[in-house]
Design goal:
heterodimer, A: 113 residues, mainly beta, 5-stranded antiparallel β-sheet, B: mainly beta, 4-stranded antiparallel β-sheet, globular
Chain lengths: 113, 115
């Protein structure tokens, strides 16, 4: 079956730097993508989403970029803070009436003070 | 408002015992999902309840695992004859199934330890 995966399992950055977390997907029918943040001992929390008809979407300190040509998704975090330390998951669905998400393996982001 | 709640938060059981994990979704959410997360791993899909449709059980790893959702609300995940490899965090999520969003709202999880 098709899957969603990540290029880097761990990422360590200095406080104040920008972070980029990458995700590759293989399902060409993927229409909707979500990034989740999971802090230690907690359930995943929604960060930002993007539909396939968009290339970029911005939130507060976060930007998601979608490159459908190479089936690649990235999450950029500006001015990374210690509170951003967590595991980040991308997830996708083909949309429509399919509300089942396929999750990637996750990237552990560590922010050094 | 209240989010997704799960109970118990932690469960320690002996190998071979049965366990029941409970999930209370957000009120009004029509879809409910169960996932398993082993230490340092991603989310493994287990089962998906969508309104009145038959559940998608394609992720259940064996016939020792079962789940039900009563009255379209509370769900219980049952693991029979637990094995040590069942040790993991079990996460529940719910979603309103809106056209505009496919976001799933997660509970805090139940940490299951089989000794």
């Amino acid at each position: 079956g098709e899957s969603v995966g990540l290029h880097l399992p761990t990422l360590s950055v200095q406080e104040g730097d920008n972070s980029i977390i990458n995700c590759a997907y293989s399902n060409s029918a993927s229409d909707y993508f979500i990034w989740y943040k999971q802090e230690s001992g907690k359930g995943p929390q929604f960060i930002i989403d993007i539909r396939s008809n968009m290339d970029k979407r911005q939130g507060q300190r976060v930007t998601v970029l979608l490159n459908k040509t190479v089936k690649h998704l990235s999450l950029q975090i500006a001015a990374t803070q210690p509170g951003d330390s967590a595991v980040y998951f991308c997830a996708e669905t083909s949309g429509g009436s399919n509300y089942k998400l396929t999750f990637g393996k996750g990237t552990l982001l560590t922010v050094n003070p | 408002g209240a989010g997704v709640s799960q109970s118990p938060s932690n469960k320690v059981t002996e190998k071979g015992k049965d366990v029941e994990l409970r999930c209370d979704p957000i009120s009004g959410h029509t879809a409910l999902y169960w996932y398993r997360q082993s230490l340092g791993q991603g989310l493994e899909f287990l089962i998906y309840f969508q309104g009145n449709s038959a559940p998608d059980k394609s992720g259940l790893p064996s016939d020792r695992f079962s789940a039900e959702r009563t009255g379209g609300s509370v769900s219980t995940l049952t693991i029979q004859r637990t094995q040590q490899e069942d040790s993991a965090v079990y996460l529940c999520a719910s979603s309103p199934q809106l056209i505009s969003s496919y976001e799933q709202y997660f509970g805090p999880g139940t940490r299951l330890t089989v000794t």
